[in-house]
Sequence to fold (1224 residues):
Amino acid sequence: MTARDFQPILTDIVHTLTPDLGKEGQVAQYIPALARVPAAQFGMALRTCDGHEAAAGAADTAFSIQSISKVFALTLGMREMGEYLWDRIGREPSGTAFNSLVQLEFEQGTPRNPFINAGAIAVTDRLLNSCDPKAAMLDLLSGLAGEPVHFDEEVAASEAATGYRNIALANFMKSFGKLDHDVATVLDAYFHHCAVSMTCRQLARATGYLCRDGLHPFTGQPLLTDKQTRRINALMLTCGTYDAAGEFAFSIGLPCKSGVGGGIVAVVPDTLSLCVWSPALDATGNSLLGRRALELFAQKTGLSVF
Amino acid sequence: MTARDFQPILTDIVHTLTPDLGKEGQVAQYIPALARVPAAQFGMALRTCDGHEAAAGAADTAFSIQSISKVFALTLGMREMGEYLWDRIGREPSGTAFNSLVQLEFEQGTPRNPFINAGAIAVTDRLLNSCDPKAAMLDLLSGLAGEPVHFDEEVAASEAATGYRNIALANFMKSFGKLDHDVATVLDAYFHHCAVSMTCRQLARATGYLCRDGLHPFTGQPLLTDKQTRRINALMLTCGTYDAAGEFAFSIGLPCKSGVGGGIVAVVPDTLSLCVWSPALDATGNSLLGRRALELFAQKTGLSVF
Amino acid sequence: MTARDFQPILTDIVHTLTPDLGKEGQVAQYIPALARVPAAQFGMALRTCDGHEAAAGAADTAFSIQSISKVFALTLGMREMGEYLWDRIGREPSGTAFNSLVQLEFEQGTPRNPFINAGAIAVTDRLLNSCDPKAAMLDLLSGLAGEPVHFDEEVAASEAATGYRNIALANFMKSFGKLDHDVATVLDAYFHHCAVSMTCRQLARATGYLCRDGLHPFTGQPLLTDKQTRRINALMLTCGTYDAAGEFAFSIGLPCKSGVGGGIVAVVPDTLSLCVWSPALDATGNSLLGRRALELFAQKTGLSVF
Amino acid sequence: MTARDFQPILTDIVHTLTPDLGKEGQVAQYIPALARVPAAQFGMALRTCDGHEAAAGAADTAFSIQSISKVFALTLGMREMGEYLWDRIGREPSGTAFNSLVQLEFEQGTPRNPFINAGAIAVTDRLLNSCDPKAAMLDLLSGLAGEPVHFDEEVAASEAATGYRNIALANFMKSFGKLDHDVATVLDAYFHHCAVSMTCRQLARATGYLCRDGLHPFTGQPLLTDKQTRRINALMLTCGTYDAAGEFAFSIGLPCKSGVGGGIVAVVPDTLSLCVWSPALDATGNSLLGRRALELFAQKTGLSVF
Fold:
């Protein structure tokens, strides 16, 4: 298939889902800055490995990428540190909620994987050893998106003011001696990473290296090795969508990473990367219409790793 | 690649691993009948979708398939019951040991997925509603393997006599009202399923429907639908190798299911199914050399879903 | 106070509670033989250290002592084994349900205390090293009660047939190597201990050694040492009434042990022992009217350890 | 017994324990200000209900009362709020470590009892509804001790800077909506409560109301009702000494509350209150020699609630 073939599929998906906009699910409530985003929005974009793009709906509306940033934080971590990154972070599914402290207590402050909050906080702590994680994130994403990307400072401030669970997680890890840096510094970077504002089109571009064995979608330079890229894709498939990873693997069959801002990125290895967005979430914390859109996409294209 | 191309790769893997035979890992100790299997054995076999086979090492030595039987029990369950099967069984990774009772208590007797022991016991209980699970299993496997397959009654008796953890799991589920049938009857079937004795070559054949969208490898008749088959492959990738699913997804990148008898089956969708076997296990309960063999296979062939 | 003073108090309590008989709570449902006991029954009896008795209501109706037997199993264990008994059993409150398997998994098969089911099963297993626990129990209780005491074989059979949770607990401990004896043998003794049938009057006598520093209420011979007796009283106060020990300590202020048959025994050190019985249980599994009767008794007599 | 009788007993205990000073146990390490307290110190003091005092060893050396403050915070809470206090705090033993987050997650932010850290933080939050908890604490303790009592600001600052686990606990409860006030404000009061500096003699006096049915030891005015006082004593016995409450109940048999500063207060209802102190802790976080001193005291006096 070429990008020309994908465009009608995306248009068709938008057409199919439009009547359902705002009817089900609920926008994330845990911080005020997210709670007031209008639910009835939907966008979708993709970019093929050979550089063609397709988009439909609100593909150019910026939203809070939230946990999708964990993919990029992990990318920065792997690029900066290689295997040393994994010293304090597991790589297995957690079987508990993304913000659970229980497993963290049993495992003495070592998060199960880099895609639960505790894991991404641990990655951010490690990044502080070698770079300025906030600058490095904007730099990476702006390069990948092909245009400047910014933090939504209001969202970051809202997290800092009311993100009690994340503050608890970070202090809990610190109490086990598993954070090297000051809790406030680590959380400031982590909250800013979550508060990056991007569009579907930008995220479809930015995840392009994940379907190209680690090569930068614009420069072709290696961002990660082939093996590191496969590691991220494997983690996305097994741990990328909270406690619905098993269902996503079945019904969509692609490495995905979702965020509570309503975005989901997905990767078809050697073929394309894509992003869907709709703010209303289902009970598992994944975008309700985003998920449905990905299922339709998988059905209509037959693209699946299985 | 054709089967002709695969044969030298398998031969080469056997050659590479032979010096390590019996040097690391430990044969499963929890039942006497498994504990006395000699560690220094290795075999490997594959069968392509178009019916060609390759094999190396002890590919025709029978071993106890143990948890690999969970794939076939699930297949029987899906064929017999469709969606009703999932009433009492989840489909998400567990994040805890395959024989843990903790999550089962928190989730009131509902297992996280059909590939942990509790889940397979629940599948077996459901099978008793519509068939004789022992006869159905031998029938299914004999047909898939193309030759008669048997239970190792000594292994089944050993499980029944000393499989305390599984007896605990079944009674625990029963106490939550989550088993319909008599505990002893359910466990007798479950222990026999685990005690099926098969060779690598037979298992490579028997998993053939998983790389052929559910079509029987010999008859071409649909055993499962395309969608059901994808469901099983997705579950194998996310939950098939105990608490190492994340590592397998990364280092092998194929849907796999392992057993404590030392076997591991793997599926390359639309391409081939394979089986490796070596009795010594690593700390996660997966065959140590089996895992290494699959990694070598993935490296040498480039076959991976990612 | 003398027994003469206590009689009107008991009569008064019966009078006060009679209007409430059968109005609240629910008879234990988990085994059929208990589920059909009529709820609207109440009895109470006490015996002072100097041998006087008082009783009111259905004080001579036999009921299933259930977990009250744990006090006597522990007494047998301490008498037979001394400190060795504690090798595999803790002595701290559990903070989880009396039949939970969670803590047992975290603590590798070692129960938190001898008054949760797992703990009493462990005590019974140890008893099998040196005596016939069933004969020893009847012998002990008949001597303490001053008349022959029997098992209710129907209740024991009901437990054996449907006590899935206890069967799970025993097999779980066995899987950790924490039971020396055959699971079926241990459970047969444990189920019979729970199935002892006694009256309030008999239990008030039988617990007489607990208010007399371990001296037998009839013979005056030491059954336990002073220190061992204090150990049991301390355990009753901290762990004797399931997940309501804190409330009992406050509102009653006496060492108590309850059973799901609706009985509760209580000890006023150096003064008296008593037993109340009413089959309907509250949400914590303690006799609803039994608990209220003990509160009234504590209020009217001012007897409390605090 | 009169205070005249107690003096030689205390002197004798000091004599017995002096050779063991500094030989076993370890001073609390979790904050720097406590970690540098010299281990080889011991003091003991008591005050009878009728106002006589006895003391031995370093009875007039001030130390950090730490968790002993939880008794006084609870007293303030009960006095200010009555039953409303218990809205968000349980009253049962926890079965897990005093600073565990696990049970808090299962019980949605509601602490098991007011003597674990989470429970005392919840009490402090409630106090902020009606008073200035820091001023109220100093006021209460100065009145009870008969002389001005102060915060050790260095200890409070050390807690605020490095008490990560407590910061985690408070933010965790806040994330469940179970704290009304600002986390920093609540923790500031909580850390100051823990940082009160008092001597054994002062604490023996200050706990005087607990052996006098709630009457102030100097003024005789009711501080709490008889019933409220019994509630506190019951909680001290079942939950006052971390995960050693069962052992304390047995070997000492008195309501006790310990702190990681090495102090332990104990109550003999209607008789006396006492305090021991020695900074080196045992594995359960209780003062090692303090515990031994209480055991000797119980043995020599025969005072025990059992």
Chain D has two domains: 3-64+198-301, 67-194.
